[in-house]
Amino acid sequence: MATEYASGAEYIKHHLTNLTFGQHPDGSWGFAHTREQVDAMGFWAIHVDSMAWAIGLGLVFVGLFGYAARRATEDVPGGFQNAIEQLVEFIDGTVRDSFSHRNRMVAPLALCSFIWIFLMNLMDLVPVDWVPWAFSLIGVHYMKIVPTTDPNVTMGMSLSIFALVLYYSLRCKGIGGFLGELTLHPFSAKNPFLKILLIPINLFLEGVALLAKPVSHGLRLFGNLYAGEMIFILIALLPLYAQWTLSVPWAIFHVLVILLQAFIFMVLTVVYLNMAHDTGEH
Amino acid sequence: MNINLTLIGQAISFTIFVWFCMRFIWPPVINALEARKKRIADGLADADAAKTERERAEQEAQQTTGQAREEASRILAQAERRAGEIVAEARTTAKTEGERILTQAQEEIDKNTQQVREQLRGEVATLAVAGAEAVLRREVDAKAHAEALDQLAERL
After folding, report:
1. Does A61 sit within 8 Å of B31, measured CB to CB?
2. Quick check: A58 and B36 CB within 8 A?
3. Could you read off the pLDDT of B40-87 as tens digits, one per residue?
């Protein structure tokens, strides 16, 4: 497929461009047909492919687990039922290990993050040209099928979790407690004057630490998957007979990566929420 | 690599999926798991109780069997003793009866012998008289000599 493009660079660029719907600079709404149009749209545009695949895979998750949940009984489970229950139990165990407070939302949130991100990552193992080629037949020019290679998707999730972290921090610690945590650590002094003097330094350090959480949370997932996708695209530029020598080992290795990244995202979600619940009363 | 509305779209869909998961997926599955865990624990406890009960029943059965065996051997001994008694009794009865029959037969024989002897005695006497008559060629007064004849018959 790579041969249809004028150069390797163009092929890569094409494969890294989302199908974007948004407002053109002239005020009209529509799909972007070139990379330049995408760039010109700015914030008021939406990656239709990322959203569609993400929601589609989310529905797969909801469908599979919803089906299992509806049929869940205390009787002997069948194979499918058993698999779903194993996953739920695994998540439940992980959450129990790293979350020491009571919150009904955390475990389902962790399950949803893990499975959904895993499914989105899994699209990375679909050969890079198949789906874009199939869509090009029906006239859709751009198609990126791995939602987690879109920073909007990963940051959308990590910022949602950051919002939860802020919410629970304020709820569990109170405004004073939360501000105190941001301003009175890591440097503390008994002298009130010195204390006030240290506030800006502490605020800066803690502020950076706080803001780094969602950014690293989202960008870690994005970076890993984007790099993986990029390598698949580069391998696709090789002559056809040589591709398997690299794509097979990379795909096998990538199985580990997609699982691990989903797991890391889930664990960090739980850990951040646990920190938000910690009131310092140990 | 543009940050755009997708960010918000993804945040919204994430929220919806998490809400759905929290509302419809997590509770039924985890409840089923808990219920099954409880059921298994109950089942194990039941099995333990049943085992204890079985051991108790086995012991009881053993005890009952022992008792029954004892009873049976007691009855058997009794029966044997009784059988011996019956046999002995029967033997005694039979012996007595045999003796009685024997005695009776002996008596009968004795009686018959006596009878025959009487008869013979009479006949011999008659014959003797007839003989004597023939010898004497005269009528012997049977009445006058009856006593002598009786004495003769007595000697025979």
Report:
1. no
2. no
3. 999 999 999 999 999 999 999 999 999 999 999 999 999 999 999 999
Clarify whether A216 is annotated catalytic.
Answer: yes
Q: Is A150 near chain B, with CB under 8 Å?
A: yes
In this complex, do A65 and B13 lie within 8 Å of one another by their Cβ atoms? no
Spatial separation of the C-alpha atoms in residues A167 and A174, rounded to whole Å: 10
Candidate list A18, A50, A121, A224, residue with the active-site label: A224
Average pLDDT of the segment spanning A112-124 = 95
Write the ipTM.
Answer: 0.90
Any idea where the domains of chain B sit in the sequence?
48-155
List phi, psi (to 5°) of B27: -60, -50
Give which of A98, A89, A39, A38 is closest to A68, Cα–Cα.
A89
What residue of A is the nearest CA neighbor of B9?
A51
Residue ranges of the domains in chain A? Answer: 2-277
B 13-72 residues with CB < 8 A to A: 13-15, 17-18, 20-22, 24-26, 28-33, 35-36, 38-39
Rg of chain A over Cα atoms, rounded to whole angstroms, equals 23
Q: Identity (one letter) of the amino acid at A114?
A: F
Asked whether A240 and A91 are in contact (CB, 8 A), the reply is no
